[in-house]
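Contributing: when you submit paired examples, paste them exactly as shown. First protein:
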Amino acid sequence: MTGFGSAKEENDIVRINVQIKSVNGRFLETRFRMPREYSALETELKKILSQKFHRGTVDINVSRMAKALTKPVSVTVNTELARSWVSALHELADKFKLSSNISVETLSKIPEIIQFAEMDELSESEKNLLLKVTHDALDACLGEREREGGEQVQTFTHLLNDLEKFISSVKGKKDHLSQELKSKLEERIQTLSDQTVDPNRLAQEVLFLLDRADIAEEIDRALAHISAFRKALKGPTPVGKKLEFYTQELHREINTMGSKTQNLSVALDIIEAKTIIERMREQAQNVE
């Protein structure tokens, strides 16, 4: 399911902006882009997200703008590198007969000689601010996903109604199919030239073929799956994988119905039912 949410907050020392975007996906994948100051919190943020998201690709973008010096800064001098540069500069001066007035200012402009580093420890107040902004952005994103979920429920409801209509149509033709098959078998029996056929054995074979062609159980199971599908849509827990399972079971029952009957009218109903189930399957892959 898709959704987007953003939030920002600031205090006296820092301004934090969090954007969360989710797109459809069968499994949960979280991708973070945030300042290195927050890298130690990635595991904790993933845990928070996994409690709210169960499927989809979720991108989390965090930006940080310091309004004041928020951490102690250490300054170190790479003396060995500085000594190498002084030696190299003196060598150049001697070789080309140049003045060798090497100043501290000159050395300070050379990369890596003077290094600045902030302490890695994040203040508790900034950590709490980041968590608050993340929760606010998460709530906004979930709000959009819930809105989309409501629209998908409507879509599923229409598809289920259409599917039930075609299955009910097949159910209404079931008795006629049995009678039609029985009549065809009787006609074929009458054409047999061999008059030594055992009537009892023949009756058993006819009953066997009629039983194999009976689709009553498949119809009942399909209607039960539709009822369970509707019930799952009203549940408060994530149902995406459950809905995928129901579509697989519906497809199996419809396929079996199709293999058991040769009737053209029923075959057309089966094709329409398969088309609807395929649309349901595609939708179910995007449901939380």
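Second protein:
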Amino acid sequence: MAVATRPFGKAKSAVMGVAYSRITRDPLPEGTILGDEVVDTCKRAIADAGLTPADIDGITSFAINMGPDDANTATDGITRASLPYVWRRLGLDVRWGEDNNKFVGSSLIEANNAIAAGAARFVLVWKAVDDPRLPGRRGNGGPPQRPRAGGDGQFMAPYGAGGGYLMHAPTAQRYYELYGATREHMAKHVVRNRKHALMNEKSYWSINKPEQLTVDDYMNARPIADPLCLYDCDLPVRGVIAYVLGPAEAAQDVDHGVAYVKAFAQEWIGPRGLNAFHHAGGRMLKPPLEDNHDVIPLLQRHLWEPSGLTPSDLSTLTVYDGFSILTWLWLEALGVCGVGEAFEYVQGDHNEIGGSMPLNTSGGHLAEGAMGGAPHYAEAALQCMGGAGVRQVKDCHYALAATDRPCRAQVIIFSSQPD
């Protein structure tokens, strides 16, 4: 876990601007490419920060798109937008940049560190997604096909046992069996999540199908991999989210609220993205549930102690939900509730907007759209900026965003004040 080892103290940087493209599953308009949407969204984030492209001297992103072989098949500007592509089209004078290979949280953390170190003053961060699972994806005609499967994949890929289902379905099943949770417990969480998404004018469901999900809808939904159903899985989309970070002292000049980076925790991810603590030789050493539980003491110590905060200090939290079970694992990993207690914790009204701990107020990956964790950090920042519209949490002072799995943590606590 590569994290701060001393108190964070006063914030060094802040999110000064945030912008979204339209989140959709439809093909891009004729005559446009993904790069056009990236450039437009970045320009609007820069303007939201009260800056111009001439002010930006740092950039970072995980520019490679989603998909098993996308690094080899992606076309710059068509199915991804690299750092050189963006800075050339925006005409930036860049003195610091990093092509990150993790979720957006890592890019935001590295932007904060670059500003704190004086390597850059104003940093542009973006995440662009043109999900290869969508029909009609330009550039390579859809997700790449593998003619052969080697290593562990030869025992799984030919039978369709791949992707997140391979890990998260048995994780959910084991959680249910160990702690007595049921699909009815999960239904309450997923239904509330959709309710929040319908309050978010940027979410896929709000734009395209503004209908409230019911418990019956969830219970009768198409099964995917027992016990996961369709509504337990994230929503493939196209879209872009961009952020601009600047030094804390400059953020005070912005004519709207900003989100100061109060604290963060980030795990070091080793070769091929594997967890350095719990994996070796490309093989998982422990079942996924235990893999996430083992990191809890380390994560809590390295997040809460340096920040001087506790979970009860949070005004809201938005945690990763690429699959619904991950939200429960995050609540337990962060110490919001005890291990094995999340399924009961999410039953109350305290997780509603207006409750004592609003949860995933934007709809997250399940309902806003699967964008590499970008919706979670954008929502937490907007809540501290006072820019969340009808879903704004009253007197939001601290908002936490966490993505990926707890054993691959990327956690940021934003504050409405530079304390």
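If you have annotations for the second protein, write them as plain sentences, like these:
The two ends are 25 Å apart (CA to CA).
Residues 287 and 416 are 39 Å apart (CA to CA).
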